[in-house]
Amino acid sequence: MSARETSPGDRERAAAAIGAEGTGEELWASRSVWDHWPEPSLPDGPVLLVAAHPDDEVLGFGGMLAQLAPDREVHVLTLTDGEASHPGSRLMPPPALARARRTELEEALDILGVERTARHRLGLPDTQLGTHEATATEWIEELLRTLGAPLCVAPWRGDLHADHEAAGRAARSAAASTGADLWQYPIWMWHWANPDDVRVPWGACRRLPLTAAARLRKEEALRCFRTQIAPLADHTAVILPPGELAHHRRSFETVITERDA
């Protein structure tokens, strides 16, 4: 079902799942569901990383960005500015929040070693990617063709966050059109799922080990997202509290390979 076909009830259930307490990292670690996941084969050539919001890049694939950037061409396409993360805030209304989040992302990508000329911003409306999916698809496809990139990395299209899912669908369409491989990284899945969740294609999950240096750079980059990891004076809910960040501080990163999903 596309975002345009998603019912209000579906959206409410998804929002409730993301807003709930969530699955602690302790449970994931105790079950070690990832122990036997293979490492995917990384094709030669440029890599295009797609994100729905500033910080998705670093949460889902920041360690790999740090590892890949010194030796190959890595491009990042951010579809929205994330201006809707603090609704109702007077301190950070959407235009100010968009500027702040763009700055945070620039700082994070500097730390991870992504060249400034390899950063692309589309500026589509936050929370409304589903209605702009065709535009996102066109941009992703054009970049894949221009770069000659054999690999597209994007949010998982089953993540239960409407923007993440729209970004994943757009990347899937673009990759299919260009013949690129597609790796999808989960963000909120670690929060709403559990190790026995049948909604997750566990057989298609792959593990990407991180070096100690890459983990340190990812951790430093995560700290750049000040608007997301700390409360605002007039918006006390933290978007990415420590319990959520713990899922993204592992010694590896996870992708779901499209051809196996």
Can you walk me through this structure?
The structure is a single chain. The protein is of the alpha/beta class and 261 residues long. The protein has one domain (3-260): 3-Layer(aba) Sandwich (Rossmann fold). Helix content is 41%, strand content 15%. It is built from 10 helices and 7 strands. The chain has helices spanning 8-19, 25-31, 56-68, 94-112, 133-147, 162-178, 189-192, 212-222, 226-229, 242-245, and strands at 47-51, 74-80, 119-124, 151-155, 181-185, 205-209, 252-257. Strands 3-2-1-4-5-7-6 form a 7-stranded mixed β-sheet. Helix 3 packs antiparallel against helix 8 (212-222). The longest helix is centred in the middle third of the chain and has 19 residues, at 94-112. It is globular. The two termini are 16 Å apart. 43% of the residues are buried.
Indicate the radius of gyration in whole angstroms: 17 Å
Q: Report how far the terminal alpha carbons are from each other.
A: 16 Å
Structural class: alpha/beta
For this structure, what is the CATH homologous superfamily?
LmbE-like
Strand order of the largest sheet: 3-2-1-4-5-7-6
Helix content: 40-55%
CATH architecture: 3-Layer(aba) Sandwich
Shape: globular
CATH topology: Rossmann fold
Number of helices: 10
N to C succession of SSEs: HHEHEHEHEHEHEHHHE
Count of the domains: 1
The CATH C-level name is Alpha Beta
Main β sheet profile = 7 strands, mixed
Note the beta-strand portion.
5-15%
Runs in which pLDDT lies below 50 for 5 or more consecutive residues are 1-6
pLDDT averaged residue by residue: 93
The total strand number stands at: 7
Region (Disordered): 1-24
InterPro entries: GlcNAc_PI_deacetylase-related, LmbE-like_dom_sf
Organism: Streptomyces physcomitrii
Keywords: Zinc
